[in-house]
Amino acid sequence: MTTTQSTAPFDRASARRRRRRFPVAKSFISVILVAIAALMIFPLVWLVLTSLRPRNTVFGGSFFPTSITFDAYSTAWTSTNFGLHFFNSLWITSATVIGVVVSAALAGYAFAKLRFPFKNVIYVILLVTLMMPSTSLIIPLYLQLKSIGLLNTQAGLVVLYISSSSPFAMFLMRAFFEILPIELIQAARIDGAGEFTIFWRVVLPLARPGIATVIIFQFLGTWNEFIYANTVLQSTDALPLQPVLFGLLGQYQTDWPTLTAGLTMSIVPVVLVYVWMQRQFVAGMTLGAVKN
Amino acid sequence: MSRNSIPAPPWARVSMRPGGQSVWKLQRSERLAGYGFLLPITVLFAVFVGWPILFAMYLSFTRWSGFGAPNFTGFANYTRMLNDPVAAGAFVNTIVFALVTTIIQTAIPLVIAVLLSAVWAGLGVVIRTILFIPGIVSFVVSGVLWKLIYDPNLGTLNTTLKSLGLGDLAQHWLSNPHLVLPSIIVVSVWAATGMNMLIFFAGIQGVDPTYYEAAEVDGANRWQQFWYVTVPGLRVVTAIVISLNLMNGFKVFDIIYVMTGGGPSHQSEVFGTYLYGLAFGSTSGSIPQLGYGSAFSVVVMLLGGVAVLVQVILSKRANR
Amino acid sequence: MHSNNPFQRGSSFVSSEFDRRKLLKLGATVAAGAAASGVLAACSSGGGSGSSSGGTATVRIWSWYTEMKDTLPAVITDFEAKNPNIKIDSRIFGTPDQYLPALTAAVSGGDVPEIFAPHVRAITYGEQGISADLEKELGSSFLQNFFPPTNQEYTKDGKQYAVGWEAQTFGLFYNPDIFKQAGVNGEPETWDDLIAAAAKINAVGKASVSISCNPTTSALDFFLPLITQVADDPTYYLKLDQLQEGYTYTDKLVVQALELNDRIVKAKVFQPGTTGTSGDQAQQLFYTEGAAMFFAGSWTPSGLITNAPAAFVKKYKVMKTPAIKSGARHWTADQAGAGFAVSETSKNKDAALTFLKYLYSDAVYSDLMNKSNSMPSTQSAAEKITNPMLKLMTSWLPDGCPHIPFGAGSSAAGDPLGKIFDQSASPATVAQGMQAAVLNAKG
Asked: Residues 6 or more apart from B214 whose CB is under 8 A from it?
């Protein structure tokens, strides 16, 4: 539990103080936090409970189901071909994350630490679409993909995702790179290292929290994306998970247990990625403090 | 990495004097690297963002339903926008939504993060994970869930209010024009708190404890320590969180689309939903209006570009 | 404040262990992705344009007819067994809102699916040369089997651009128990009867009629037949829909219909918040016995069988929409909301037509309709309906009138109509709003 250890010095000092004077405060705060957490998690508890009910009892029943069935999970798995779409999501998201990290890290570093003409102009131009809703360019994008011949391919979707997500990731990486002292780079230059070597060996290892942040954001964003996937991919086999799950929402009737079962199953990998990444994320931030 | 591991190229032996040949070569390699590193992102941008934007700009001067050829109509789309009450409403709603969510989604996670750093570490980890989960599910999922919660007859919110004897407070959360935007904002806060709180938490942990010790030696109590050490130390992180929230507020689409589709009667229409309707013909009747939609997206892009520019200038000034 | 730099000291401490671990994980993912892309490239890239490779024609069929989700695959397998060089790729979306963007994009890209649900764009697409003229392709003997309204709605200038798949009528589903509880006897015949009944039902704490006005095209399902009732002429709306010479939404008849609608809303016949209620929410209100009646179409029996408690499914009944006065015709909506069009430009048009004819063949079609509890569009299949509710509603078709805005821009009349349900505008203002909105959307 790296997290616990790294926050210990701060906590211990103030905890000592608190134990002497205000033992009540910590418990009081804990109660508040637990209440907040319970409130926040409630809708999702409903989600999981609904996936365990028989279909006719979703509404008009008590909060806790009187009869529990796992049928919805097997229905969700087979009727939606869950495994295939899950795998599609995994591969599309991973490829996107890698692509975004590569292009954003390179560009973020260039904007943060390198000097070259027109740097600021290019920076602003790349960021100009940061605020645009995803729906604004959907038809021109579709036509663009078609003219390149990448329509209805997962590769085309991945390239689309990378292109539209890189500016923001680049913005984040730049912020992380800015913190690094220029002396580090200059020293390496004096040593005779080439620019890419400096980037690869000196700077990148130090930007781990930044990369972890980008990975978390990008993984979440791409895993949950729906509109582009639905429009760009035509054949059902190629679709990732979200459009397929969303397709279970009917106009006049919805199979709630199956839908919620599918949604529950789709949340699992993201939780895993989060747990894996968050240690690096928080640890990286606090590492410097500990060392000091 | 040590000084001896990388072989020194010829120019390393020459001393670094400004104006000397060695400096020029270094600058050139730096410039080449700069453009080289930018290559992936700019190529992708040019092909998949730049070109569609240019195409949209062209379309904005035409009338096109997606099939057949576009008809050139000059500035007709732009003048129509000036008289379009739905577009004006979308503008107001988007700005309000972005500002309100930014304020709430920065303040509340900050408070929670501070509280979290004051409790037992084990409990803290559990609560952090729990609070993060609402942010993991897609907005499609959250939208559907909350739409059910807000259901005026069967939803948990109203039935709980009624069972507590507070039936008078039960409202039509999503169909009352005055309540629809606040109701959606609640959902946005619910989903965004976890991630923002995590960023603040990491930032708080990253503040050097020696500063706290120094402050304590100077006689500052816990409240003063928070105000004079923690808060300034969070400046960068807060700036990131604010720009994140502003950006997402401006771009919002999925959650409003799933919960109300922009209704009732365009009361919750924002840029994202209106553009969607114009592109696919949902709100405008049966036919897509790609010309008008493109004009609208050009305007949105300009507004967004101005906002980004302002942010960039402000942050450059702050870092000086 | 000078920012404390955590990285300066940390560089050599940052564990190379983490480096290796992370790189391994990344590498594994990339390798998996690369392997997967090889596997999936075979599946994904080929399926799109429906082009034949080595003599197999791929026919894509797109719709949102979720009632068929479980039953269509078996039909497809049978067909492919009998026609080895045709492959069917079926895609059933969840709602029209999920389906329409994909269709619009496909049309913009010039690659329309071989068979697709045309929604309200049937005629528009037909005139643009996107959907084929089925009068020519399928022949009048084939089309004669269909109920006339389902053919008429897709026809313009002698060309028919789609065929009806599921016919529809609308009715008032009701809960006899609540009627008894409120003291309502028999079925209300006129709107005045309904208003009187509503007063009694509201008095026992229930909503009277549950209706969905979200999206606003569902509100049009209720309102447009009122126009026919007021005009007593089912062709009136057909002409208004196409905005033919001399027909506008500000006509006296339309305003009268709006005033009638307004009166019904003012009498608190509907549940509060109709413009915020979606189709499934309105249905839930009915089967959780929060409302006595439910105004909806003939897809409802199928929905109730899957969603409602079994006891409820046994007891609910259905009646015709009230008439404007005693003895007048009830004029219920009768058009097919679900149809199929064939792409004019696809290379596999002939294969598509073969499959379409197979779908409509007597045994296959009526079996599909009965299994999914849907109302068929052909008269021969109508004779074989098994569900008693549907049988009853199908018998109302002769009193049918149009309710679907097929004309260019016509569905834009829905948003101003919402103001009547919201009570936020007067009938005269709404009529003007409708005219403006439709002209605006039409272009």
From this structure: none
Shortest alpha-carbon distance between residue B175 and chain C (Å): 4
Tell me how crowded residue A63 is: count the other CB atoms within 10 A of its CB: 11
**Tally of domains within chain A:** 2
Phi, psi of C163, rounded to the nearest 5 degrees: -120, 150
Superfamily (CATH) of domain C170-333+408-442: Periplasmic binding protein-like II (3.40.190.10)
Last residue of a domain, one of A37, A54, A72: A72
Same domain, A166 and A50: no
Does A167 share its domain with A106? yes
Using alpha carbons, list the distances in angstroms from residue A130 to A52, A165, B188, B311, C275: 41, 9, 19, 12, 34
* Residues 69 through 88 of chain A touching chain B, CB cutoff 8 Å: none
Q: Do C8 and A87 touch (CB under 8 A)?
A: no
Contact yes or no for C146/C377 (Cβ under 8 A): yes
Instruction: For residues A203-228, give the mean pLDDT.
Output: 86
Report the C-alpha gap between C350 and C128 in whole angstroms: 20
Above 50 in pLDDT, residue C34?
no
pLDDT (0 to 100) of residue A20: 53
Strand partners, C146: C378
Q: Report yes or no: C4 at the A interface, CB cutoff 8 Å.
A: yes
- Has residue A117 been placed in a domain? yes
Q: Cβ contact (<8 Å) for C285 and B154?
A: yes
Q: Which of A270-279, C81-90, C134-143 has the lowest mean pLDDT?
A: A270-279
Interface predicted TM-score (ipTM) of this complex, two decimals = 0.79
Q: Which residues 367-406 of C are in CB contact (within 8 Å) with A?
A: none
Residues of C with CB below 8 A from A248's CB? 94
- What residue ranges do the domains of chain C occupy? 57-168+336-401, 170-333+408-442
Domain boundary among A72, A92, A110: A72
Contact B253 A30 (CB under 8 A): no
Contacts of B233 in chain C (CB under 8 A): 1, 4
Q: If you measure CA to CA, which chain B residue comes closest to C411?
A: B285
pLDDT tens-digit series, residues B147-198: 878 887 777 788 888 888 887 777 778 878 788 999 999 999 999 998 888 8
Q: Where are the alpha helices (DSSP H) in C234-348?
A: 235-241, 252-266, 279-287, 300-307, 310-315
The answer to whether the Cβ–Cβ distance between B154 and A60 falls below 8 Å is yes
Q: How far apart are the first and last CA of chain A?
A: 20
Question: Which residue of chain C has the CA closest to B171?
Answer: C273
B228 in contact with C, Cβ within 8 Å: no
C57-168+336-401 is classed CATH 3.40.50.720? no
Phi, psi of C58 (to 5 degrees): -100, 125
Residues 231-260 of B with CB under 8 A from C: 232-233, 235-236, 260
* Residues within 8 A of C (CB atoms), B 138-157 only: 147, 151-154
Residue A197 located in a structural domain: yes
**B85-318 under CATH 1.10.3720.10, yes or no:** yes
Residue A66: is its pLDDT beyond 70?
yes
What is the reported pTM? 0.79
In a domain, A289, yes or no: no
* A 232-291 → C contacts, CB under 8 A: 232-238, 243, 246-255, 280, 285-289, 291
Q: For residue A242, what are the domain limits?
A: 81-247
Interchain contact, B275 vs A282, CB within 8 Å: no
A29 and A100 fall within a common domain: no
CA angle A14, A20, A25 (to 5 degrees): 70
- The pLDDT assigned to B33 comes to 82
Question: What's A236's domain CATH number?
Answer: 1.10.3720.10
Domain membership of residue A260 (yes or no) is no
Identify whether C215 is preceded by a cis peptide bond (ω within 30 of 0): yes
